[in-house]
Amino acid sequence: MIAPPFIFTALLLGVLTLALAVGCGENTATPSSAPQPVEPDSTVLPYNLDRPDAAFALPAELLEISGLAALDSTHLAAVQDEEGIIYILDRETALITAQGRFKGSGDYEGIEVVDGLAWMLRSDGTLYSTSTAVSHNMDATRHDMDLHANCDAEGLAFDAPANRLLIVCKEHPGRGLRGRRAIYAFDLATERRIEAAVYLIDRAGLDAPGQPFKPSALAIHPSSGYLYVLSSVRKVLVLLDPADSGHILEAHTLPEHLFPQPEGLAFFPDGTLFIANEGVNGPATLLRFDERLDE
To answer: What is the pLDDT of residues 161-211, one digit of tens each?
Structure first.
């Protein structure tokens, strides 16, 4: 039986607060032999990733949540990596308010909403599009991107100025791109993939022993235009500047007690950030971070 969301919120925030307090007394420094993410003296990140403004335990159906997107001003859309189902979540309670099946079983890793269409990404690089008007059984259109083998596509984001979807490879970036992670693009006007990667992320300084940088989600901040890339293995959030060829602005290590397996990332137009964690020894979680414009 699933408890009401407000009880989940109170319980989860209590656990997170306790974990944070305990963590402050421990030596959690990364060994000196491990490469360090670029932690800037003056950050451009307008969020306190150590303290979510709200936290929710998600229903059992979303234990393996893998993709997240803002649907409208009050709802999120989500997918999980076993069933071709779109879940609609209330932004304030994280309750499932609707759901609809767009495809059968499969490894679905991303979702994005563009002009009344929901786009879903499968790990083999296949895209599906369908109406955001969720119903029991939905018609979906398949789009083959012909991505190279072993890319393991995981993140999906809408790049509005270029009218394209961005797809990040968790694994192999492509021929001749060793030591980097690649972001490819699907042009929405032509419905074709742009052949070459549009952004490349150098893993030097991001990888750690036994914890390689493996992107799991990405999204573009609504006002700054910076591209946020989330890694679930190497628990880090990287900010890229699209106006500067995807230059890494900064990277932030994520506290493990809050981010056991971060898999979903979404912004609302007001700048509110949501990050979803797959369930690890407990339910999946949804964390809300309010933008701090005065910091």
So the answer is: 999 999 999 999 999 999 999 999 999 999 999 999 999 999 998 998 999
Q: Strand 65-70 vs strand 273-277: parallel, antiparallel, or unpaired?
A: unpaired
How many residues does the structure list for the chain? 295
Helices (H), the chain: 5-23
Q: How much is the CA Rg of the chain, to the nearest whole Å?
A: 18
For residues 273 and 70, give the distance between their C-alpha atoms in angstroms, rounded to a whole number.
Answer: 10
Is residue 18's pLDDT more than 80? no
Residue-wise pLDDT tens digits, 149-163? 899 999 999 999 999
Residues with Cβ within 8 Å of 85's Cβ and at least 6 positions away in sequence, in order, are 61, 79, 99, 100, 101, 102
Asked if pLDDT for residue 221 goes beyond 80, the answer is yes
Integer Cα distance of 201 and 231 in angstroms: 12
Cβ partners under 8 Å of residue 111, min gap 6: 67, 68, 69, 77, 78, 79, 86, 118, 119, 120, 121, 156
For the chain, the 3-state helix, strand and coil shares in percent, each to the nearest 5, are 10, 40, 50
Q: Which residues of 78-111 are buried (b: 16+ CB within 10 A; e: fewer)?
A: bbbbebbbbbbbebeebeeebbbbbbeebbbbbb
In this structure, the number of other CB atoms found within 10 A of the CB of residue 243 comes to: 10
Place of tokens 């991107």: 145
Q: Which domains does the chain have, with CATH numbers?
A: 54-289 (2.120.10.30)
pLDDT at 40: 57
Q: Answer yes or no: is pLDDT of 19 > 70.
A: no
- Report CA-CA distances (Å) from 177 to 145, 171, 200: 19, 11, 8
pLDDT, position 43: 81
